[in-house]
Amino acid sequence: MNILNKFKSFLLFILASTFFSVDQTYGEAVSFNRDIRPILSSKCFFCHGPSEKSRKAKLRLDIEENAFRQKDGLAAFVRKSVEDSEAWHRITSEDPDEVMPPPEFKKELTKAEINTIKAWIEQGAKWEGHWAFIPVKQTKEPKTELPQWIRNPIDSFVLRTLNDKNLTPSPEADRRTLIRRIYFDLTGLPPTPSEINDFILDHTPNAFEKIVDRLLDSDAYAERMTLVWMDAARYGDTSVFHDDGPRDMWPWRDWILNAYKNNMPFDQFTIEQLAGDLLSNPTDAQKIASGFNRNHATTDEGGVIAEEFRVEYVVDRDKTTGNVWMGLTMECAQCHDHKYDPISQEEYFKFYAFYNNNADPGMQTRKGNTAPMVEVITTERKKQLSEANEEVEKAVTALQDRRKESIQSFDLWREKTIKDLKQNPDLLEPQGLIAYLPFDQLNFETNSTAQGNQIKTSCKLHQSPKSVKQAKFSGGIKIENNAFAELPNFGDFEHDQAFTLSAWIKTSVQDLGGAILGKMNEGNKHRGYDLWMDKGRIGTHIVHAWPDNALKVVSKKRIPINKWVHLCVSYSGKRNPGAVEIYIDGAKQEKVTAMNTLQAKTIKTDKPFRIGRRFKSAHLNGTEIDDVRVYNRNLSQEEIKTIMSLPYSTSPEPAGLTSGLNFDLFEGNKPGT
Fold it and tell me: What is the DSSP letter of 189?
């Protein structure tokens, strides 16, 4: 059976169910469900229906057994006998004390309704159960007086209905109208002008069938059908309650689209949505299908009672399942036996028990989905992951091969290093290193560094200094837009304590001015110290109160621009110009004393140690910085030459390291470019 035949069979089923009662001929037989139940429901059930509170005379007309039961020689309905049917006498009585419904209810039956009840009784008063529970039986195709008009069985039913209503068939629609109708019916969209022209010019016998087959196999048809199902299933990609935050339910929507497009059998369509996750070894698609049960509204409002809303979610699932699959307003039985549908309150809570085992909590989230969840990987993403895994395996294999190849060269390097260290012990890091900031170990993606295993304080970046991939030794940072780095709770040197400050820098600024390193409070008369650039000359300030109690010494020589240069200042703690030595690329410099008033008063400040500026001022914009080192003693010239010639990549980890970089604490910083 091709797609068109399936479509025809479906329409035949719908028309048979709509126009005709089971095994009865329209126009001759009265259907209880179609004709009688609506009358009883609107006019009689209030007093003679499901509600015990409002029921009169202990008579129920909604249950077949009660409606035909004799009591005291009387029955409401007697098949094929209006004379013996007490209900007939009551609805036709002119006595206001006898007539039903009572006049005060203002629900008087119309003549047409009375005649319909009469015809039903005379025809045998055939009772029908609730329509949702009646199996549909195939109806025979009726014979017609215009067989030449019939093109498929559906036409026979349509023609008979037209005859019953004294109508004649309309003229056949032109091809332009016909293609527009089928497009709107199956896709909800109009055909394009070219599609219309193609159909008009297609004179093959099955031109129409080809269009129907193509549309039924299209994404647009699946979307058209899915739209209706999504409404019934209360689909939504937001949480609804409170803040109506986002959540991802689109994988379930896509599952529905595929189910319609692939013409999934309805039993499978039902099982996988209601309990796909409970099947044996469920696939990801079956788990996604059960997302039908998670389409309900959720809340994360702070004042709610979580258990109350967990129950609300279960109630919602009961209601939706009853509405969608059984055509019942099951939610009415939550508070009482159903007034019209055959569901008791006890049966409602038996059904409720199936969903009362849910694992999702009452308090959920406005920031996505709440567990339990399924990790959804698209087909494209699965392909990408598979390709990536293959590349990883290749890389791992290559790495293992490279390790095997490198053993010999590593052994040669190790032997040479041992020999060099024995011949020249000065290759090792000088003692007294308390801060070492190489910057080449920075990872701006994870905001962390592998350097500094014994740190007691953490370095932070501010205002996003740029990452320099190829600095003096691998990586470094560049100060721009007043960016800087900071080591809090570090560097509390006193005026009589020795220390050494060093760094590699590269600047494009002629006559550079500013602080390479500094721990100084400008607001308290510049108390503190720094490694200073003074119009391209390297120097330092050691200050209690500027200018009355301070020491400033700078080099006579200016540093070159656009070139990496090593700068170092050592201080012996003796509070005079001779206590300061200045080095450029390891060479001791001639000095100029700009201020010499330092006395035995504290230079300590609570402001943090910063790289690229003082506390508030002296920004070093336009300058790259690498390999910052701070020692708690004044190094000799030979030691300074050693540290400037020790690239990080080959030096052992410094002993006694107490400060380093840790970008886990990350304030106001974004990855540099």
Answer: S
- The mean per-residue pLDDT over the stretch 518-535 comes to 96
| Distance, CA of 373 to CA of 452 (rounded, Å) | 40
Do 436 and 626 meet the contact criterion of CB atoms below 8 Å apart? no
Asked if 88 and 79 count as a contact pair (C-beta separation under 8 A), the reply is no
- Contact in structure between 538 and 589 (CB atoms under 8 Å): yes
Phi, psi of 176 (to 5 degrees): -65, -45
Torsions phi, psi for 274 (to 5 deg): -80, -30
Cβ proximity of 484 and 612 under 8 Å: yes
Q: How far apart are CA 604 and CA 529, in angstroms?
A: 9
Q: Which residues contact 214 (CB under 8 A, 6 or more apart)?
A: none
Looking at the DSSP bridge assignments, the partners of residue 499 are 571
Contact 227, 233 (CB under 8 A): no
Task: Give the tens place of pLDDT for each residue, 203-262.
Answer: 999 999 999 999 999 999 999 999 989 888 888 877 677 777 778 888 889 999 999 999
| Confidence bin at 422 (pLDDT 50/70/90) | confident
How far from chain centre, in Å, is Cα 423? 63
User: What CA–CA distance (Å, rounded) separates 330 from 317?
Assistant: 11
The CA distance from 81 to 115, in Å, is 14
Question: Which single residue is written with the structure tokens 């036409």?
Answer: 155
Encoded amino acid at 358, one letter: N
Q: Considering the domain 433-644 in this protein, what is its CATH number?
A: 2.60.120.200
Q: What is the pLDDT of residues 600-650, one digit of tens each?
A: 999 999 999 999 999 999 999 999 999 899 999 999 998 898 888 765 434
Six-digit token string for 519: 């721990």
Distance of CA 132 to the CA centre of its chain: 38
Cα separation, 280 vs 296, whole angstroms: 26
Provide the percentage of residues in the chain whose pLDDT is more than 90: 50
Which token pair is 394? 């290749």
User: Could you give the CA distance from residue 511 to residue 499 in angstroms, rounded to a whole number?
Assistant: 26
How far is Cα 69 from Cα 87, in angstroms, rounded to an integer?
Answer: 12
**Of residues 629 and 664, which shows the higher confidence score?**
629
